[in-house]
Structures are given as structure tokens and as C-alpha cells.
Amino acid sequence: MTTHQGDWTMALDEEARMTGENAGTRQPVLAVRQVTKRFGAVEALIGVDLDVHAGEVVALVGDNGAGKSTLAKIVSGVLQPDSGQVRIAGEPVTIGSPAAAHALGVSTVFQDLALCENLSVAANIFLGRELRVSASGPMDLARMELESTKILRDLTVGVPSVLAPVRDLSAGQRQAVAIARTLTTRPRILVLDEPTAALSVVQTAEVLMLVERLRAMGLGVILISHNLADLRSVADRIEVLRHGRNAGSFDAATAAPEEIIAAIAGATRVAMPSWARR
Amino acid sequence: MTSLKEVFGGGARQFGMVFALVALIIVFHVATGGKVLTPTNVQNIINGNSYVLILAIGMVLVIIAGHIDLSVGSVAAVVGIIVALAIRDWGIPWWLGIVLGLAVGAVIGAWQGFWVAYVGIPGFITTLAGMMLFRGANQYIGKSNTVPVPAEIQFLGAGYLPEWGPSTGLNNSTLLLGLLAVAAVVHAEVRRRQSAQRLGGESIAPWVSIARLGPLVAVIAAATFLFGSGRVGTSFPVSGVILVVLVLVYGFVSTRTITGRHVYAVGGNKIAASLSGVNIRRTNFLVMMNMSILAALAGIVFVGRSTASGPFDGTMWELDAIAAVFIGGAAVSGGVGTVIGSLIGGLVMAVLNNGLQLMGVGSDSTQMIKGLVLLAAVAFDVYNKVQGKPSIIGLLMRSRRQSEIPGGPDGPEAGPVKGSKADTLARR
């Protein structure tokens, strides 16, 4: 019996090591390949590539109209690409709707928080996906409250009580509830569209902590933001889009802000003209 | 403090309204020299207001969902005349008449629900049109005549529970109902304690349970005595039984079912609800349809009480129902309100009417007083909102409500959630 159990644990260890080994060449949980999207004559995305690994925060930056939101919407199923491929865990998939994205493990927190202020935190977290006592029974209020508590605790978010109406929460706490909402379906990929827009300094820091928790939970996170300082502090990799094309990929820890801004703005080093060289 | 909250439960408005109701009853009882709390008078209050209270139950859901229904009086009237005529002229049995009436209510509700939910016309406009349409239909169908209804329907609107069995000094049906009610509240309290313990929260102190049960049981006992000890042949009114059943059913639907929660979600933030996968159209449709079915029931109960259906039945009922809902704590902007609160709001209006009448105050002054009460009740609500005070009790609790869920650096292994679970269950 004991040896049996030992074997079993060893097998588990083995598996863990193998996945660990795979980490170097591991498969991205989300891979976007040569995706193109046009709106009439406007080319929003042209041959864009994007990889997101489990436990990685990828920041998507670019000027207004660079195609960040279009790419996020393609990943979350709101828009469909004209050409190119989206692969989830290596499998080519068609994401036809936000519901299909949910089923594939892709959740999105949109810029405008979709919360009902009159409902409690727990009610918001499970809104539209309420748990029932039995197949056609009433809601299982106690279980929804406990699960909400657990999710929020995993996120290490301090919310007064899961029974408090969202109306009573701060903007940062609301963002946390909006993120917690998406975790009820146990996604693999989370798309955060401008999560720190309109937040105070302290609240922004709270949300960035939250993103780090999500990474620690092993999710692949796509973070869209305008704030380079925020992104550099929390992202692993920064992907720049410019005019709908990939315009560079930077290691967030080492890249200089000027380089990233140059990529966003499309600036190239111009040779100094001879007349200036006196 | 926790325990204090556990004793009272609920929000400040309900809490406040219960006290206002009790205070009103006592004040009027004293002022009229003991005429309010007599068996005949309380039976009259229930019989004479059950239809408005039935409407208030439907209306609170409509208002929570962010709409309003101005057509309920007309719908009640048209259903009343159809039921009365069908029974008299077609010779259908009384029970089939009731089924027919409810079916007509459902069809009217589907009509209004269609315009509100699927075409997107505001409920105010749709039901304003319905108010004229169905008032006209009542007078067209009935040729503005008064049509009597049979005794069975009258029993529904003005009858009393029957007497049976040994003589106990009280009406035995009422006594049985009272005992059932006591058993139900004790059972609910026991279950509340059990689930609080099972889910690992702090257990509820015994005195809390006793303090909560004591007054409730006392009130039920007093009501049982009051309703059961009237003159022979009277007891708890049948319309009161209908009302109690509706309150239980709709209380459950609004707090425990997904449909009920979606009504609150739609009223709170329509866009958020739809992004979350709530079917807004279906919810709006059901709310409007349900209101008309309840209006049909109210119409049937009313023609029973007045023994006949007439061309001016149900005028201004919509306003009484809406007033009851707002006095009962619903918010004009939608998303807030409770079934039990609306019932209490309706009873406040009913007692006010009754008490002033017993004191010999004319209907002119009564109207003015009722208007001021409505204004004061909603002003209290708005004032609290402006001040950012969710409720009196919430205010008292504010200091200890912080960080009930430890979200600190200790992470997931930080031990059980203290307090909040028990609070949760205790509050229900």
C-alpha cells in the first residue's frame, strides 16, 4: 500500500519535472499567428503575432488606433479575424462569441466595469452564472458566498464583506470584483482592457498587485494599458503594436522606456545631417 | 453590536417601517379609545386592502426592474367584468371563471411585456396606454353596467376561514394557521442556527435567537387571538390567506431564485446584466406579465368583496400600489426594494386610512396626510443616500464591517472567515 502510494507520488513528481523541463520550449497557452482584420478599407491588424504563456503577463501597448483593442476583441471572441489563426494550448480554434471564448478558457475584463452596484459582491461575482442547489432548484446562496470569499482571498483582495453592495466599494475594489467575476469559470487566459484607467495611485498599485497574483495562479494575462510605468513594473514582456503591425517585443525588466516609446511612436534613429556636424 | 443587527436583520427602511407601523397602530388605538385593535376592525383592514397589497407585491418587482405599471387598476377592472359576465352569461362554474380571469391577465401581461421588453417602449408609456385601453375595454365589455358575481367569488373577497372541530374559544382555522406560523418561524430560526454553525462561522448567541423569536411569536399569537376571537362566523379573512401565500411565494422568488436576482440586476445596471449573460428581455417580459396576472387576481378579489363588478372599479389603485412600494423602501431609480417591505408600506397606508377614518377625520385631510407620509418616507431615503448612509444599522456596524474577509499577506491559508458567514446567514 505504502509503496503503491510512493510510486504514485513519484509519478506525479516525474510529471511535474517533465512539465518543468518543457518550460524552456513550452507551448504558449495562447498563440496568435498572422492575424489580419479589416474594417472596410481600414486595416486594423496586419499579420500580427502574439504568444502568451501560462504564468506570463504580456503587455500590449501602442498608440490610439494601433490595434490593441481589436486584437483583444479577437482573442475574447467579440470580433473574428479575416485571416490568420488563433491557437489555444496548441489547438487551432475559432472563437465565434464571448461565450465560446469563455468555454475555451478566455475571459475578458472590459474597460467599463460590468457590475451591478445594487447587488452584493457575491451576487456580482456569480451574476449570469448563479449556482443552484439542484438542477432546477433555487440559488445556492451559501455556496456562492463561500466561493466568492475563496476567490477574493486567493486574489488577496480586502473587500469589507461579500454581502456588501458593490456601491459601497472603492474603484480598486470594484476592479478586483470585476476580475474575480471572470475567475469563476477557471480561465487559462485573462484579457484586461485598461484595468488602471481612472484609478488613483493607490488603487492602481492594488490592481497591479492583483495582476501579479493572477500570474502566480498560473494564468496567461494580456494587459492593455497606456501607462508604461505600470506595465514595466508588472509585465514580463511588452509587445508593441503600431498601425496594426507588430512593432517590437521587449523584455519588460531590461528594456529602456525610450526604446519602447520609440517603437510606439515609430521613431527611428536618423543619421545626423552633415551640415549639423561642424 | 453584531447580535443587535442579528436581532433586527434587514435594512433600516424596513426596520423603520415596522416601527412606524407599530407606532401608528398604537397611536391610533389610543387616540380612538381602543377601536383599532378589535377583531372586526383588523379583519376589515385586511379585507379592505388585500387587493392593493396584492398589487404592491407585483408592483415592487416592476419597480425593482426599473419600470412602472400604471395600468393595474384598469387591468383589474377589465378582468373583473370579464369574470362576472362569463359566469353570469355563459354559465361557466366559478372556478373556471377565476382561471379565465387569470388567463386574461396573462394575455394582457404578455401584450404589455411585448411592448416593454421586445419593442423597447418605456413601461410608463406602455402602461399609460394600457390604463386607457383597459379602462375603456371594461366599460365597453360591461356596457358600463354593474354585474353581480356568485357567492363563491364573494367568499374569496370577503369570506372568512370556516369553523370546525371542538370549541376552543377561538376560530379553529385561525388557531391552526397561527400555530403553523409559529412552527414555521421557529423552524426557520433553528435552520438558521444550524447552517451558521455548519459553515464554520461564529455561532449565534442563544439570547439572539430568543430575542428575535420572542416578539415575532408574540405578534403572531396576538394576531391569532385578534382574528380568531371575533363574532361567530368571522375569522382570518380568505383574502388575507391569499395575501400570505403570495408574500411567501414572491419573497422566495425575489430572494432565492435566479429569475428574482436577475430582476434586481436588470434594475441595477442593465448593461452589466446583459454583458453577464442575463436575458434582459425575458426578465422585463416576465416582470410585466406577472404584474398583470396579479392585477387580475386583485380584480377578482375586489369584485368578490364588492359583490359585483362595476365600470369604475380599480380607479387610482395603481397609485396606491406605487405609494405602498415606495413607502416600503424601493428606490425610484430601480434595483432596490423588497416584497415584505412593500407589504409593510401598504399596511402603513392601510392603517393610516383606517385610523384617520375611525378618528372621524374627513377624506380631504386623510388625502393630505397620506401625501405627506409618502413624501416623508421617500425623503428619508433620499437623505440617507445623499449622506452616503446605507442604513441606520449599517451606520452602527460600519466600524466592524471592514476587512471581514482577511485579504492580507497571509494568503489562502489564513484560517476560516470569521463572523461574516454567521452574519450572512443570520441576516436572512
From TrEMBL, chain B:
<feature type="region of interest" description="Disordered">
    <location>
        <begin position="403"/>
        <end position="428"/>
    </location>
</feature>
<feature type="transmembrane region" description="Helical">
    <location>
        <begin position="285"/>
        <end position="303"/>
    </location>
</feature>
<feature type="transmembrane region" description="Helical">
    <location>
        <begin position="115"/>
        <end position="134"/>
    </location>
</feature>
<keyword id="KW-1133">Transmembrane helix</keyword>
<keyword id="KW-0762">Sugar transport</keyword>
<keyword id="KW-1003">Cell membrane</keyword>
<keyword id="KW-0472">Membrane</keyword>
<keyword id="KW-0997">Cell inner membrane</keyword>
<feature type="transmembrane region" description="Helical">
    <location>
        <begin position="210"/>
        <end position="228"/>
    </location>
</feature>
<feature type="transmembrane region" description="Helical">
    <location>
        <begin position="323"/>
        <end position="352"/>
    </location>
</feature>
<feature type="transmembrane region" description="Helical">
    <location>
        <begin position="234"/>
        <end position="253"/>
    </location>
</feature>
<dbReference type="Pfam" id="PF02653">
    <property type="entry name" value="BPD_transp_2"/>
</dbReference>
<dbReference type="InterPro" id="IPR001851">
    <property type="entry name" value="ABC_transp_permease"/>
</dbReference>
<dbReference type="GO" id="GO:0022857">
    <property type="term" value="F:transmembrane transporter activity"/>
</dbReference>
<feature type="transmembrane region" description="Helical">
    <location>
        <begin position="12"/>
        <end position="31"/>
    </location>
</feature>
<keyword id="KW-0812">Transmembrane</keyword>
<feature type="transmembrane region" description="Helical">
    <location>
        <begin position="91"/>
        <end position="108"/>
    </location>
</feature>
<feature type="transmembrane region" description="Helical">
    <location>
        <begin position="52"/>
        <end position="85"/>
    </location>
</feature>
<protein>
    <recommendedName>
        <fullName>Xylose transport system permease protein XylH</fullName>
    </recommendedName>
</protein>
<dbReference type="GO" id="GO:0005886">
    <property type="term" value="C:plasma membrane"/>
</dbReference>
<keyword id="KW-0813">Transport</keyword>
<comment type="function">
    <text>Part of the binding-protein-dependent transport system for D-xylose. Probably responsible for the translocation of the substrate across the membrane.</text>
</comment>
